[in-house]
Design brief:
188 residues; alpha+beta; five-stranded antiparallel β-sheet; 5 strands; 65% helix
């Protein structure tokens, strides 16, 4: 039962991680003048601008910030690895549940993968937030002294995904231990 709950949480963590990596809402900058609000949204891959009375426009981050900082590259890599390890953890646990064999190694491997996925997701988000290259770029090129850049939902989704992955790892490891001789010998 713990493995089944873990698979459900693992699926949710995977969805949140994928959405968090894709959306252009890691940072948002906005200003309001005479009741009109303009905003710029930055993600790992795109930058989107919304200006009243004009069309919204999205462009590749590489077209705006050249060259892309190592911080953004590292964050991209860590978050993609987190997506892959989260998917692998879910697949391993699913195989264990579907095959219904007494081979608990699948669940242990799923727990280890889920823990690694959680660590990758959180470290990737922290790397992005600590050395804020996007804010430095805006400060130098566009909005001198007016940056009010805030972390946004893409960042938050990856943090939540990392936390869910840690919870999933605990569930998988508890599922692994629940039928081991160690647990049974303690109870007798």
């Amino acid at each position: 039962m713990l493995a089944v709950i873990g698979i459900a949480l693992n699926g949710l963590a995977l969805i949140l991680e994928v959405v968090g990596v894709i959306i252009p809402y890691w940072f948002i900058w906005s200003t309001s003048v005479h009741g009109l609000t303009a905003s710029i949204k930055f993600g790992l891959w795109k930058c989107c601008t919304e200006v009243p009375l004009l069309d919204s426009e999205c462009t590749s981050l590489e077209d705006i910030i050249h060259p892309i900082s190592n911080q953004i590259r590292v964050t991209r890599g860590l978050e993609i690895l987190s997506v892959l390890t989260t998917a692998m953890a879910g697949a391993l646990a699913f195989l264990r549940v579907v095959t219904r064999k007494d081979n608990r190694r699948f669940v242990l491997a799923a727990g280890i993968n889920a823990g690694i996925a959680g660590l990758l997701a959180i470290v990737g988000a922290v790397v992005f937030a600590v050395d804020n290259q996007v804010e430095k770029y805006l400060e130098e090129h566009a909005f001198k002294g007016q940056t009010n850049l805030k972390l946004h939902s893409g960042f938050g989704l990856c943090i939540v995904s990392g936390i869910l992955s840690f919870i999933t790892a605990v569930l998988y490891i508890l599922a692994f231990c629940s039928k081991s001789n160690i647990v049974h010998s303690i109870g007798t």
